[in-house]
Structures are given as C-alpha cells and as structure tokens.
Structures
1.
Amino acid sequence: MVLATDLYQLTMMAAYLEFEMSEPATFELFVRRLPRHRAFLVSAGLEQCIQYLSELTFDGDDIDFLRAHEVFANISGRFFERLRAWKFSGNVAGIPEGVPFFPNEAILQIRAPLFEAQLIETYLLSTINYQVSVASKAARVAMAAGDRTCVDFGSRRAHGPQAGVYAARASYIGGMVATSNLLAGKLCGIPVTGTAAHAFTMACPSEDEAFRRYHAAFPDHTTLLIDTYDTLRGAVRATHISGELKGVRLDSGDLAQLSKEVRLILDAEGRDSTRIVASGDLNEYKIRALLDEGAKIDAFGVGTEMVTSKDHPALGGVYKLVSKQVAGVEQAAMKLSPGKATYPGIKQFWRERDDVGRCVRDVMQLASTGAPSPRATPLLVPIFERGECVYSLPDITATRARCQTEIASLPESLLTIEGFGEYPVEVGADVSELMVRLRAEVGE
Amino acid sequence: MVLATDLYQLTMMAAYLEFEMSEPATFELFVRRLPRHRAFLVSAGLEQCIQYLSELTFDGDDIDFLRAHEVFANISGRFFERLRAWKFSGNVAGIPEGVPFFPNEAILQIRAPLFEAQLIETYLLSTINYQVSVASKAARVAMAAGDRTCVDFGSRRAHGPQAGVYAARASYIGGMVATSNLLAGKLCGIPVTGTAAHAFTMACPSEDEAFRRYHAAFPDHTTLLIDTYDTLRGAVRATHISGELKGVRLDSGDLAQLSKEVRLILDAEGRDSTRIVASGDLNEYKIRALLDEGAKIDAFGVGTEMVTSKDHPALGGVYKLVSKQVAGVEQAAMKLSPGKATYPGIKQFWRERDDVGRCVRDVMQLASTGAPSPRATPLLVPIFERGECVYSLPDITATRARCQTEIASLPESLLTIEGFGEYPVEVGADVSELMVRLRAEVGE
C-alpha cells in the first residue's frame, strides 16, 4: 500500500532529499469545521493507520514503477536507494477511537523527518476522513433510535468492498450493534447478523414454502423478509411457521403503518416475542419520524445513508505542517491562504469536565505549555515513538463502549439530531500570540 | 474476498443446498432510476468483477469463521464441504466499461445455480455501484471542462485507500486524463501526474527558495503551487525561476479573477507556455462557471466532489432474480413491492443508431426474441461461460477512448450538465406481456 498516495508526495520527498531537508517536522491531521448537521465528530480509523505505518515499505516493484515515471528522470539513484531501505521512524500521537472531537483538534499528530511525514499524508487522510464520517453518522443514527438496536446493512452501497468493511467497523464504533458484512466480522471482530432477502422468497415455489424452508434451516435465528409480494399477507404467512420466529423484516412501503398492522397480526397469533426489523434507505431523521409516528419497530437495518454519510459524503480532513526544525531550532509554521489558515505550533488538546464528568470545554494549547487546569485531560495520546507502536489498541467492543460513554458525557445540548448547540474549543493565549507573531513575519 | 458479502447470502446458500434448490437462475444488476442531474450513467467496474469471479474460493480460515457463527448451528457439514470445493461456474454477460447506459438496463446479468449467484451479489453491487457513480460524475466534469484537461486529485477524500484507486480508474474511464494516485497508476495503468503542495513551500526557508528547489529537482515537470501566502506574489516569484516552467497551480480564492491576473503576470515575463492549473473543491458546475467568467485556466484538478460523487454519493444499483429454472422449466420472476417492482425474464438490451451513428433509442426485450431491428446492437456481451472468462478486457486507455466516442454519439440533448432530455428506453411487447401474466399469477 505504500504507493496508495499522491505522486507529489514522492516528488516532494525527492526534493527534500536533494536539498538535505532531513530535520523533523510536525504535521497535524484535523478538520477545519463541522459538517452542517453534526454537533461533533467521532474518532475512528486509528487501527488501520497503525497497521499502515507499522508495515510500510517499498518493494522492488514499487521502486521500479517510480523509476520508470518520467517525472523522476533527473532524480539520482540515491533517492531510490533511500526508499528501498526505508521504514517509518517517526512519532505519532492521536485521539483514541470512539472519542468525540471538534474542529481544529488534531486527530493525528505526526512528528517525523519531512521525507517520511510527507509520504503518509494521503493514506492517513483517506482512512481517517472516511471512518470518522461513518462513525459520526452512525452516532446520530443510534441517537435517533434510542434503545432500539441498529445494524449496518450498507455494504452493497459503500464505495467498494473495502469501504464496506470499514463502514461496518466505523459504524459499530459509532453505535451500531452489528453488521451484515462477514469480512468485517472476520477482520475486525464485529458481531455479524442478518435476515433473509427477496431473492430467497422468489426462488421458492411460494412465500409460505420460502418461510418454512428458511426456518427449517435456521430455527433459532430466522428473521423473515415479508414484503416480497404483499406485506400483510406475508406477516400472516410468517405466523404459519411452526416453532419460534425471531423476527420479521419490512423493507418497503409505509413502515410506520405497516409495522403497527404487522404487530397486531403477530400478537394475535401469540407471536409477542417476534421482533419487527425495518430497513429501506433509513437515516436518523426517518428513524426519528417513524418512532414519533408510533411505529412498532424493534430494530433498524441502516445502509446507504450511513455507509456513504450521504448528507456529508466527504469529510474535509486536512494534514498540515504546524512546526519544523531548522538548523536545530524549532519554528512554528502556518498557512495564510484565505479561508485555509491553520493554527501553528505543536499542540495538545485538553478536555475539561465538571464534577459529574460532563464535558465543559476543550482548550487548544501548545504542547509545551501544559494543562490549562488540574481537571483537564489530554485528547492526544502517544501512538508511535521512534517508529515503534507504543499504543495498546483496545478491543473494538471496548472502543464501542467507550464511544457510548464519551458521547453521553457531552453537553446535553449536543445530544440531539437537530438544532444542537456549539461546543466551545478555546484557542489558548499561547497559540494566539504565536499566530500574531507569525502573521507579522510572513506577511512581510 | 469471498467473505466480502452479507451474512444472509451465506444463510440463503445453506438453505438452497438443504432443499436441493440447485437449478440455475438468472439475476440482473441494474439501476432503477437515474440520479437527478444525470442524463446517463457510464459502465465501469467490470474489470474488478472479473477478477473477483475468477479468483473466488473459500479457504480454511473462511470456513472456520463461518462454522463458528451461531447462525449455522443447525447446518450440516455438507454445506461447508461444498464451500471448500467451490468455484464460480456460471455465465455472465455485461455492458463493456465506458459505455453509457440507462435505468433498468442490466449492467451485469448472472446465470448460475442459486447457491452461486447469491454469494456474489454484495461484492458485485459495491464494485459496480461505486465505479459507475464516479465514471458518470467524471463524464460530467469532463463535459463542463470541454477541451481543458481534468485530472483526478481526490484520493484523500475517497472512502478509504481502495476507493481512491477505484475512483482514479473510474474517473479516467469517464474522462479524466490522469490521476495523482500512484497505486492506480501501478495497478490500473493510468497516467499519473502531480504538482506540488503547500507543505513543501512551508518547509523551505522562503517561497522563492521553495520554487527554486522544486524546479531544480524537476526541471521539465514543475507545476508550482503559488497560493501558500499571497497568490499574485507567488505568481511573480514563480517567474523568477530560471528555465522552463510547466505550470502554476491555484488552490484557493477567486479562481476566475486570480487566473486572469496570474496569466498577465506570466505573460509579461514571457511565460506564455506556462499553464495555469486550478483546484479546490471543483465540480462540473464550478468549472462551467469559471469558464463562463473567462477564467484563464488550462487544467483542472478535481477531487472530493468527483471521487465521492458528492451530489449523489450512492448509486442504488440492485441485483434481482429475473428468471429461475424449476424442474427443468424456465420461469420468469418479478418482485411486486411498491416502488420496487422489477422487469421479469432474461433480457437483452438493444441500442439503435441513426445513419450517422447517433443513438436513437434502446429497447429492452427478452433475450430469446432477438434484435428489434437490423441496426440494433446488443449492450450485453458474454463475459463468463461456465465459469471461464471469455471476455477480452480492453486496455484502460482504449476503454477511455471508447467512452468518449460513445458519449459523443448520444443525442445532443443529453450532452449538457443541466436541463437535459430523457433518453428513450422502450420496454418490448414481450416483456410487457410477461409482466401482465406474472402479476395475474402471483397476485392470486
């Protein structure tokens, strides 16, 4: 995966080497602003970033491919030899997965020679941007569903097979209880569940027979899809199977109304314990509306809108140079482009809580300044030191549990899917002073 | 990748085996309706589907993972033995990549035992849904840019590293001339180009020095990013480098106005051949607006909006049973759910052109009916026969060229990014009659 990056990262690396720009620099990966309709974001994707940085090397094929590109025609063999021997040697700090965060807070902070820090930008961004998008959307879906369960059903609409696995993972962290994606279960240890599909019903001689066969194969785990032909008739037919029926699924039509009618049909046949699962282009707003209408739905299968974060399909995470060492002296760096200015300096982000543990505010300060108050805890924790991973990655179920706890500790004004407040992230006096000084210097 | 599918595909497979439902069935993968703002879709992703079907097997690990899942507690060992020995044995037809298509036209048509056809649904959908989305969006971007060149810069905002590669591939087919993604270059044979980044400028002692160094390393391939501090000063500094300068890039601010001023600065210094590249959250509408404003831009770097197909980030491709064999007799199948009804039967999709080769209409007919007219050509071509690939995949550059030609042959009313007409896809009398008959039968 070392070539899963932009060409200009490699050209910049070659130029850095050519001009012996080998001193360390610090980059921060952060989001400039919250997408509309998001009160907070949820950290996710760190595990994949750790795997990537741990395993990253150039093999002979990769180097041959680069050498053959005309852009490197004037670059000496020294560059390619350097790539051949290379392994990530830097320090990384990061916000643990499942932790809510806000704009301008570094999700990852990389301290490494420019040569190395540049290479990894594209991969880290694509991994973090996507998983954060999905975890954040999933948190909203879970919030809307309250104590109903939600399951990821979105693999078929994710942006390719890998995105389906990462969506399962990120949405589990953000609040789903399971996924339908088997590979996500195998690779990431997420619970995998499922129902049945229209094709099965259509492949059988009749709907009655389809239900009987499916239940015979999976007597303890059958959730029947009942809307292939006529939903209410399907519900009646579902009650005909002998033995326990775990659930029925509705995937089309007026889900609120149908769920009430189906509930009556099931209850009339003593199927009180049979759960009603709903699916079909659901999102947090539709779930909220269904529950407001009194829908008798016990679980939601959520797909397309969550795995593509459809209302905000691209998180604008960026990776910016905030400090560099020049002749042994650390120099803070900032960009001044209109609307794209950055906060300079190597920072820490502190979260302050009140007596009952509820988050009150975050504070951005230079890392060298120290905690703004005794009760502030740092968001960034060490992940890599000198190229070695020093972070003990929690089990994904523990990460999911942490996410629930952390979200619950946010100000209540943020815990709504619409009309939420804004969480205060204060810029420390040290950072503000640094900005004034740098603007004066580079403004010329 | 065999587990990159939904659990219910495997449970259905187990039930099919249990009830000896081993006869062949036909599924079609299609889109029900065009996303708003799309006059047509572009076929893409077939290469990955072919790779997947060619290589698909269950290894011991996969089978152990499945066996351990509680849902399979009552399933006999025969099922797992069958998986161990399994290889795709079906027939596949498909629309070649780069060909425009319309709703209800099968992009892929799979004929295989239910057991096999079911398994592959999720992977095929996620691959086709995503690549078609991006190829179709890229076609619009290229249309807006006219004879200016457009390059994919979107990897960092794609939904994970694999999506970045697939976006590069699909957008190249749809009309980009290159990508910044090196892995896409290596794996898919797409031209890779790039410029420079803000980090390089910020890492150097000054902007002047950054430009000098980058140009020294890449004398024939330097496109300098000039907006790190002040764009017009950056443009002046770019003219200070000695030797040829291929291009400058603008990534922020009023691109139309800045490009005109930068053009004047470059021309005043005899840099007539230096091209101006623009980037920064571009899409087809912004490109059109820039050109309408007389922007002096020669090339566009397009990222986020294209690789996420941001205005329609999820294509609703579906995979539906259209026919099955029962006791040796073929039976057409259709779904009746409200808004989700399907066209039954094994179909062919015919494209009719006028005397100058311009597309006039498509016709959906049962495959057994034959061509609707002598000048109609079929969209579906053979891809697999009895599990063996029989399709000779064109080089991706040939596919891209075909895409250009095919799009140019669409009715002119479709070749606009706004206010386009609707292309006629006619439902053959044979299909209509079949629908009436089936509705009567299953409607009971």
2.
Amino acid sequence: MTVQTPKIRLYVEHPLGQEQQVGLSREQAHYLFGVMRLTVGAQVALFNGTDGEWRAEVAEAGKRGGTLVCRAQTAPQTLPPDLWLLFAPIKKARTDFIVEKSVEMGARRILPVQTAFTNSERIRQDRLQAHATEAAEQCGATYVPEVADLTRLDRLLADWPEDRQLMFCDEARAGAATALPNTPGPWAILIGPEGGISDAERTKLHALPYAHAIALGPRILRADTAAVAALTIWQTTLGDWQ
Amino acid sequence: MTVQTPKIRLYVEHPLGQEQQVGLSREQAHYLFGVMRLTVGAQVALFNGTDGEWRAEVAEAGKRGGTLVCRAQTAPQTLPPDLWLLFAPIKKARTDFIVEKSVEMGARRILPVQTAFTNSERIRQDRLQAHATEAAEQCGATYVPEVADLTRLDRLLADWPEDRQLMFCDEARAGAATALPNTPGPWAILIGPEGGISDAERTKLHALPYAHAIALGPRILRADTAAVAALTIWQTTLGDWQ
C-alpha cells in the first residue's frame, strides 16, 4: 500500500498518533472548510514538530471548529540541522521572504538582529512566526523554526555559545566565495542589512575565533538573495543537502 | 587617487568613454533630477553593457532631459558566465523575484519557458526586461541580461545547442544534492513551475545527453528559492564565484 501525502498540510499544536482526534481552532476550520471547501472524509496532512507527519481525515466539519482523526503516519519526524539564521530586518516584503526562505532552506532557528545599519527598531514577531509556520506547511517540513524577538547583534555576540560557528558574508571581500571550514556541530549564518555591516562590526567579527567570513561572488546581493545563497553553501557543505 | 563609485548607477544605451557626453531620456531625467534631486555637478555611475562602468557628472539638468559627462572609468566591462536561466513563469511577484535574482546571481540570459504545468500563456517581456535592468543597476553589474520572450520548453529543447549543458532540478529525486559534473563551457539551468515538471518532461529530460538532474535538499523549494539555490551551486562549482 502506498501511503500518499494529502495536498493540504497543517501545523497543529496537538499530539499526533494512530486514531488520535485533533480538534480544530476557528481559524483552522475556516481555512479547511470555508476556504478550501473540504467536507467530512477529506484528507489533510498534519504535523506538530515532534510526532512526524500524519494523514488525517475530516470527522466533523463546522463553521467554528471541527475534528480530524489521524489515520496513518506519512513521514517520520525530522529536524533541520542545528543552524541559526541571523538577519537584519529590512523592508516588510523582503523580511517576509527571508523568513520563508530560511524555513524552506532548513534553518532551525531564525533570529532577527539589530546591527549598526539596521533601520528597524521593532519587528512583528507574531506575523513572522506565522510566515514561518506557513512556509513549513508548504515545503513539506515536519518542524517549524522559532522566530526569535529582535535582539541587538552586539548583545547576541556577548552571550554567544562558543561551540557554535558563525558564517558571515563580508561584502568587503567580494570576489570568489571563500571555502567554509568543514567544522561539524552547531552553526549560525549572519546576513547583514542592505547597507552592509559597519567597519566596527567587521573588525569585531573578524576577531572572533568562531566567526568565518565568506564572500558571495562578484556582484552585490540583496539580503534575501544572500540568505538563500549562504544557506545553499552551508547545506551542501555541512547540512542535510550533502 | 581612489576612484570611488557614485551611489546611483544607471544603465544607458549610449557609448561611454573619457569626456563622452551622454544625453538623458525624459524618464532618466525625471529619476535623477525629480526623484533623486540631483543637481549640476552631482555624480552618477553609468554602464552600457560594453564599455564598463564610468563615473559621470551632471552637466545639464532639466525636467525633460539633461546631459552627463563621463569623467573616469570606475570598473572594467565584465560579462557574467555563459549561463542561461530557464524558468516557468509563476505568480507576478515571484516571477519578478526570479528575474531580479537571476541578474544578481550572474545569469547571462533569462528565458521564460512554458512547461506542461505552466499556467501563464504570456508574460510582459518589457516589464521583466525593465526589472532585469534595475537589478543590474542595483547589484553593481556592468551587463544587463536579456529576458527572452516566452517559449515552449519542448520547442526550445528541439533546437537546443548540443554543446550547452543543462542542469535541471528534479523534485522526484529529493534528498542529497547530486554533484554537478565539472564540464566547462556554456550551461543552462531549468527551474520548473510550482507544480513540478510532468512525467513526460522528466522522461524526456533524463534521456537528453546534455541534461543533468540535481536535487535541492529534502524540503520542497518554491521556484524563486530553487532558482537562487541552483544558481549558487552552479556559480560555486563552475562560475565566477569559484
């Protein structure tokens, strides 16, 4: 028997297991029954970040709620590699894209950071977290990365866990991509703002024993492009694309 | 003397050289003098795709036109590698992103293609070409890739130049990224639509001697993410990021 994954995938905060009943929130019921027009007997895929992916069947469909019943596990639980993606928030649409792309590309945690040249004083963490959830539903992941609150880069570096390597993209070293050291274990990638990192930040980063500068080719990349390119280099060198 | 590049970069269809005068179109004059508020004596960077980048000075500024004079060459002419990016047009915003990213990432030619699962019957070639020009201005390139008209993939493959290798992303082979063969010379990358390529297309592509399937990790990437990831792998393996 082939276990097929239904087309609609939904992240739920509920235990999943054989014949497990899962109650739906008003928003989820609206999406499944109002927007997607599902009826009793229809199938959706569920994941919760710990129990893998399950094929579930609509048992009750209402305007304000509903119940799904798990029928079969369709994918085991998998975690993305232990990789953080640090980025300086930019314009709304591109910030949304960076969050979406980080999830698709398999970052485990997303940390918006305030750098010297970051204009944003605040972010809408809840909105970015919802984007991350949507991206996980869409890309077939069984895990939703946490989007942290906005933190100052200097404070983050002051408390940095020393066993976590940090790859940062140094525009001043434009040209050939520098090879990433093949160090296993936890990693992070820092994507600066469109204005680049400041000279003080550059000096500080280069002095950190766990930080590794790489260049991303001879052209100047926008922050969202740089995020995907850096994640690709990391994933093919050290991550789950190997 | 340091030759600094001015912050505003403009693509012009005009020869560039020492003391060369460059007349501005109405749109260019509006942008420089109306939007960016430049006045006589201000400096901009010009490139035309053949003569490198030049620092030019505003000599005349009018509402409907103006003149710039080239003062010094600030970058030599460089071409991106001989790489085509074929993609199936998707929703407007993501199509725009793919064009923008292809330019930043150094594709030399951008070809929208109609595949079995492509919904678009037509594209606005002029709008996409304008996007490509803007991306080249922004990313520091001295070359603007041509955006071709929409072509059917089967017709393009029927006339394919056999010395051009083709890398395509096969979702059916999700998992580890397959290594790209280290074949020098002209290349192309094919990014399928969000619905993937059809079984018939897959069979046909796998049978072509110049086509190479690669996988882009264990998650399903959106077309715009896949474009940047595939371009990164190509550029670091065979292109100008080496």
